[in-house]
Design brief:
The structure holds two protein chains of two kinds.
Chain A (H helix, E strand, L loop, with lengths): L5 E10 L2 H10 L5 H18 L4 E7 L4 E5 L24 H20 L11 H17 L6 E10 L25 E2 L1 E2 L9 H16 L3 E6 L5 H10 L3 E3 L6 H9 L3 H4 L14 E2 L6 E2 L1 E5 L5 E2 L33
Parallel strand pairs in A: 1-2, 1-4, 4-5, 4-7, 6-7, 7-8
Antiparallel strand pairs in A: 2-3, 9-10, 11-12
Helix pairs in contact in A: 2-7, 4-5, 5-6
Chain B lengths: L30 H12 L16 E8 L13 H19 L4 E8 L2 E9 L2 H10 L11 H12 L7 E8 L10 H10 L2 E7 L5 H10 L3 E3 L3 H10 L14 E5 L3 E2 L11 E2 L13 E2 L2 E3 L6 E2 L4 E2 L6 E2 L2 H6 L1 H4 L6 E4 L20 E4 L6 E2 L1 H11 L3 H9 L1
Parallel strand pairs in B: 1-2, 1-4, 4-5, 5-6, 7-14
Antiparallel strand pairs in B: 2-3, 8-11, 9-10, 11-12, 13-14, 15-16, 16-17
Classes of the chains: A alpha/beta, B alpha/beta.
């Protein structure tokens, strides 16, 4: 069991893209953003209550910014007592939970009120939220006391439609501090579903590799349609990928599948791992290919041989068959 | 001989007054100086970006480890050989992390001979296992630079032209015993475009200076163990490709990972091709794996070169790992904390800015603390704030 020195940090990345949520409200009015956030808060509270040393962070991922819902940079842990924060919730709830819930609610209200969607950028900036989550985890791990371990995970739940989609990313970063060595497991649960442009892809892959290097798990909870990128992320970092069949039961899935941390998962029967397609897409037609040609300079992939690389414009040497020297044939004598 | 300008040797310089570095403040504590020194140590690595220089991504590197008598010296704890092998394990892991489609081979030299410890391969496990086993070997005799370079050259000269051919020598002895003229060999190496670098453990040796200068490598002598580690890590990054390396399209396969469970009707257990050669692995029968798209031979891990048809098999994330070399992140601008007028919060980790300098990204003008700056440049390779501005544009 987790001892006093085990700290588990869960970072939840919530996707709050208003465009997608607006579309969703028209399709299925019974599952909207507030219900989703309720499920997230249930999960967050459960996590905080599991062990005294568990920590939490929640990031809202919007199409223009990523905002830390909890902990707020203007809020310090010592300010709980007194102040204008409605301390002492009337129903006897654990102080930490009530403060956290109120804070998150207020922050999300401010966030949705102040941002206006401009331009044609409609995709949620998942890579950016993940990058910030990683930096936060890195900072918290440096602030540990000596002898404490930290395990972290990021849970991302998002919609990952192939056009513009709302990404509901819940990044649960559970940091568990164990006394056996300073091992930090970061679990990044990222759920992403949408087509990304090349730059986003590269940033996303950079973030994934950084998470793998820091031993942070990324779990993904997809709400709408499958995402190849998130499947790769979960496969590379060792997290769980799940596509939820019924959105209204989100809280149930979160609690059953994503709440246990990495050590306990081996004891549980969890959804089987998904077959990840690691084939590359060629740069010219965006088809998935099994055999391709790779430019040695810029590493772009092509399905057919061409004399010039279209990305870096290098001229290639065409391999010609080697010239064979004519061998002198010995004349056969008659007898 | 050559007309290399003689730079001043270390014994020719003046005295270093190391006690003057530490300064006490009014109350007599050294805290400020110690913090300063720590801060400087963190920032010691200079982030030089190569700009638009072509880098050699597919590298074939031979590491030559000197196993002669001088490696039993105890100036590196517990002795030079153990310390070197341990750092080599770390180097191999980092190397394959940064260059996933490259290969490494290890050669040892002792007793006037040289022999291959491991062949050129793209899988780190084999090398790490061989390095662990080599810790128990004895060090005796003199090393032979000529023989070691010869063995490496025999394999490297057959490598295709678009890859970079490199040799890294960890040389601790001050002598070498060669069967033939080493300057001829240096000429041959230069013609074959093999770049040789040396890390010296004892002192500077003239023949190594000429060797590295002629072939275009670097020569450094270590000061202590942490300096040794730093010098090794310098070789992890891909070097700028020489102008004469050819660029070509390399044919590669991207196999699918077939996961089959026991309950599958069609799943048949089969041997992986890599198990045919190894003797100390288990039974080797597995249900799933990677099947070469050209000849359907099975492998358990990627990247690998198919033994049957010769096709290089990789997966897309392996190529993606090298992307950050192509688009390196610019170094951030350092400025003192007092000049910073905005919010005292780091925009990446939401922590308070407490260090004496803050770092600003030149592209998006967001402010980061020292820890985040190091983390971003070493591990993340992308600015978190720039991602948001890119997306929104």
């Amino acid at each position: 069991m987790a001892s006093e020195d085990e700290v588990s940090l869960l970072v939840i990345v919530v996707d709050v893209n208003p465009i997608w949520w607006g579309q969703q409200a028209q399709r299925e009015p019974e599952f909207n953003l507030s219900k989703c956030l309720d499920a997230v808060m249930v999960m967050a509270n459960s996590h905080l209550v599991m062990t005294r040393t568990n920590k939490l962070a929640i990031i809202a991922s919007h199409c223009q910014e990523s905002h830390f819902l909890y902990p707020n940079k203007h809020w310090k842990a010592g300010d709980v007592a007194g102040d204008e924060v409605s301390s002492g919730s009337g129903d006897g709830k654990y102080e930490l939970l009530s403060v956290a819930n109120d804070l998150v609610a207020e922050e999300i209200r401010n966030l949705m009120a102040r941002t206006q969607v401009k331009g044609h950028q409609t995709d949620t900036l998942l890579a950016g939220s993940l990058a910030k989550a990683l930096c936060y985890i890195h900072r918290v791990s440096k602030e540990l006391e000596a002898g404490q371990d930290m395990k972290s995970r990021i849970l991302v739940s998002s919609w990952f439609p192939f056009s513009s989609a709302v990404y509901f990313c819940i990044i649960f970063v559970q940091m568990s501090m164990g006394i056996f060595g300073l091992i930090i497991y970061y679990i990044l649960q990222v759920v992403k579903a949408a087509e990304d442009c090349a730059l986003q892809y590269m940033n996303f892959m950079n973030v994934i590799f950084a998470a793998q290097k820091q031993n942070i798990l990324i779990d993904a909870c997809v709400l709408d349609s499958d995402s190849g990128l998130l499947q790769q992320a979960c496969d590379i970092t060792g997290g769980l990928y799940l596509k939820i069949p019924q959105k209204t039961a989100l809280a149930q899935y979160l609690l059953w599948v994503f709440l246990p941390d990495a050590d306990q998962r081996s004891q549980l029967v969890l959804p089987p791992s998904v077959h990840v397609d690691y084939r590359a897409a060629c740069f010219c037609h965006r088809n998935l290919i099994e055999i391709g040609y790779v430019c040695s300079v810029c590493l772009s992939i092509f399905c057919n041989f061409s004399p010039i690389c279209t990305t870096c414009e290098t001229a290639f040497k065409i391999p010609l068959p080697q010239m064979m020297k004519p061998k002198k044939k010995k004349l056969k004598t008659a007898n | 001989m050559d007309e290399e300008p003689e730079r001043a040797k270390r014994w020719e310089g003046g005295y270093e007054r190391t006690w003057e570095v530490l300064k006490e403040d009014e109350s007599g504590s050294l805290k400020a100086t110690v913090e300063d020194i720590l801060f400087q140590a963190k920032r010691k690595r200079v982030f030089e970006s190569h700009g638009q220089v072509r880098l050699g991504m597919m590298r074939h590197l031979y590491v030559v480890i000197d196993s002669s008598r001088t490696m039993e010296d105890q100036d590196l704890k517990p002795n030079r050989l153990t310390s070197t092998l341990k750092l080599m394990e770390f180097f191999v892991e980092e190397y394959f992390d940064q260059n996933p489609i490259s290969q490494i081979g290890i050669i040892t030299t002792k007793n006037k001979r040289a022999e291959k410890l491991t062949d050129l391969a793209g899988n780190p496990k084999k090398h790490v296992a061989a390095l662990k086993k080599a810790v128990g070997s004895t060090c005796l005799g003199e090393p032979s630079l000529y023989n070691a370079l010869n063995i490496a050259m025999q394999t490297l000269k057959h490598m295709p032209g678009h890859t970079s051919r490199e040799i890294l020598i960890i040389f601790s002895s001050l002598t070498t015993c060669d069967p033939a003229n080493i300057y001829e060999l240096i000429k041959t190496l230069k013609e074959l475009k093999i770049r040789v670098s040396v890390i010296g453990l004892s002192a500077e040796v003239r023949v190594c200076t000429i060797l590295t200068r002629e072939t275009g490598g670097s020569y450094n002598v270590i000061l202590d163990e942490s300096h040794f580690k730093e010098l090794l890590m310098l070789h992890v990054k891909p070097p700028p490709a020489s102008s004469s390396s050819e660029c070509s399209l390399i044919r590669m396969g991207f196999p699918q990972h077939i996961i089959a469970s026991v309950s599958d009707q069609d799943a048949k257990p089969s041997f992986s091709m890599s198990h045919l050669e190894s003797v100390d692995e288990g039974p080797g029968l597995t249900l799933g794996g990677y099947y070469c798209p050209q000849c359907r031979a099975k492998y358990t891990e990627l990247p690998v070169e198919c033994k049957v048809c010769g096709l290089t098999l990789v997966s897309a994330p392996h190529l993606a790992r090298s992307f950050h070399h192509l688009f390196p992140l610019d170094a951030f601008q350092e400025s003192p904390l007092e000049e910073h007028t905005g919010d005292r919060f780091c925009q990446a980790c939401q922590g308070e800015l407490k260090d004496k300098s803050v770092f600003t990204c030149p592209a998006c003008s967001s402010v980061f603390c020292t820890e985040c700056d190091l983390f971003i440049h070493d591990t993340l390779h992308c600015c978190p704030a720039c991602i948001h501005t890119q997306g929104a544009s």
